[in-house]
């Protein structure tokens, strides 16, 4: 009996479909449209839920066809390698930076700082490139959200605009 469940893990498809059902049920309580962007939070949750149900169905079909699911070797992870505490601290600081700076500096500069810290945590040594990429990504994000009618504050609040 154990080998049947291991060979045909229908429970996995059922869990994915169940998660989709929960998303769809939760989305039914949220507004599907908003005044500003036209797309409300319920629409995104509904899309995710429907996607999960479809993926669960596809997974069930794959299991029915006899697809096997074997553990893949980890990418290039070396479990014996010690934790890089400096990189971990930089990533944690990058995650915390928006809490402190987004209202005072705005999204573009906050994204620039966070992106640069995360890039450093992953070993990047190109400071000016990381700052530039972070600034461009943050600016594009601000412009996109602004175009959708979502208010993320001023572009550069410390200069009043």
TrEMBL record:
Entry-linked Pfam families: TctB (PF07331)
Superkingdom, natural source: Bacteria
Alphabetically ordered keywords of this record: Membrane, Transmembrane, Transmembrane helix
Ranges annotated as spanning the membrane: 12-31, 43-67, 87-115, 127-145
Oxidoreductase in keyword set: no
Domain DUF1468: 11-151
InterPro entries in the cross-refs: DUF1468
Protein name as it appears in the record: Integral membrane protein
